[in-house]
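Posting this for the archive.
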Amino acid sequence: MDTNKTVGGRIVEGRKRLGLTRERFAELIGVSAYFVGQIERGVRKMSYETLIKISDCLHLSLDYLVKGEQPVQANDELQKLISQCTAQEKALLLDVLKAAMPHLGQLNK
């Protein structure tokens, strides 16, 4: 089994699940689209730093990317929207969620 190709396949699946082009994905993780293609085909290795950026961008655990352990399924639409946000927008969304959490339980009462 070629680990690089296996990891690359999981990256392709994650990228496509979020509706990201190779070019946009490359921008988000700070590498070239050509390099992303090489990673996805398993012909180039990546640094740990790049793997972590990929994991964060695709909302996939490192365990899943490397070992294939299935992640807990989250709302794909929410993940897609979040993936298109800047770091500053993500921080703002996190603040909004933190503020809303105490009130969400009251909706079911």
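Residues 97 and 103 are 10 Å apart (CA to CA). The first helix runs from residue 3 to 17.
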